[in-house]
Write a structure and sequence with these properties.
alpha/beta; Conserved hypothetical protein from pyrococcus furiosus pfu- 392566-001, ParB domain; 2 domains; five-stranded mixed β-sheet; 14 helices; Arc Repressor Mutant, subunit A
Length: 306
């Protein structure tokens, strides 16, 4: 496999994205004299900072921003925002949520580290920093992956390693971009979960099926059955629309377990195995391929933000 540190494609970097993200993480930890040695942490006016116009996150959770703003009002901005010179002011490389929350907390200045990243480096960090550390919706994450593939020539395997997720997770997300815009919008708005959307990929009429899923409150498993019927010629009602999928009985077999495995795999970006016994007991196994992936799982289980 090729390494992220090799120059790839027209927009490839001379060093790897993992290295760039490592720089960002180190800058956010460095303060005082140690910070000054790498690029001093300093205070600049909030009004002198602008967000990156092409960062993947378009939707910010208002309640989460209010919660962060309340914390910042009490304790200040603990981690510095990474910026780069932009005209007479500065542009955000990493930390837009903190900047937005600082505005809500009515801070006049925030701590920053200024780095001289190129346009290419800034865009790639903006994309990957959001994927790795924020809860993007599935469509935003898929679009970020697609940009990294199209504009910088990276492979799915390289992206998966950089964000500590499985290659199948990356591939499944990219398939969501085949859905019609109307269905993608429902995912962005939180009306459809990723599992529902993935089941609709390749259906003859995903828009109609998505509306049926929402109106009937169908589960992912029911959606998969409905989409499968749609692909292969579903039995229909007299009105010509597909028959609604029937709910799976309690204690259903391997098909429902496999559906649950896929849902958890989509959520965690790891391969998931479930062993289910007749007496209700069983085991849940998560397969990780690096210490970074293990750390990510531990942080999620402990409730820490990544």
């Amino acid at each position: 496999m090729s390494d992220f540190s090799s120059r790839r494609g027209k927009g490839g970097l001379g060093r790897g994205l993992n290295a760039l993200l490592g720089d960002v993480a180190q800058d956010e930890r460095d303060t005082g004299e140690k910070g000054a040695a790498r690029g001093a942490v300093r205070m600049i006016p909030v009004s002198s900072i602008a967000p990156h116009p092409e960062q993947p996150r378009r939707h910010f959770d208002e309640a989460a921003l209010d919660e962060l703003a309340a914390s910042i009002a009490q304790r200040g901005v603990i981690q510095p925002i990474i910026v780069r010179p932009h005209g007479h002011d500065f542009q955000i490389v990493a930390g837009e949520r903190r900047w937005r929350a600082a505005q809500r907390a009515r801070l006049h200045e925030v701590p920053v580290v200024v780095r001289d990243y190129s346009d290419s480096e800034t865009l790639q960090i903006a994309l990957l920093e959001n994927i790795q550390r924020q809860d993007l919706n599935a469509i935003e994450e898929a679009r970020a992956y697609q940009r990294l593939l199209d504009e910088f020539g990276h492979t799915q395997e390289e992206l998966a390693r950089a964000v500590h997720k499985s290659r199948s997770h990356v591939a499944n997300l990219l398939r969501l971009l085949d859905l019609p815009p109307e269905v993608q919008a429902q995912v962005v708005e939180g009306k459809l979960a990723m599992g529902h959307a993935r089941a609709l990929v390749g259906a003859a009429d995903p828009v109609a099926l998505a509306d049926q899923v929402l109106s009937q409150g169908l589960s992912v498993r029911q959606t998969e059955k409905l989409a499968s019927h749609d692909k292969h010629g579903a039995p229909t009602t007299r009105g010509g629309s597909p028959r609604p999928a029937q709910a799976a009985p309690a204690g259903a077999g391997s098909a429902d377990i496999e559906a649950l495995e896929r849902q958890l795999a989509d959520l965690l970006g790891l391969r998931v195995s479930i062993v289910f016994n007749d007496d209700g007991r069983g085991s849940l196994t998560l397969d990780y391929s690096s210490l970074e992936q293990l750390d990510m799982v531990c942080q999620r289980l402990s409730g820490e933000r990544i």
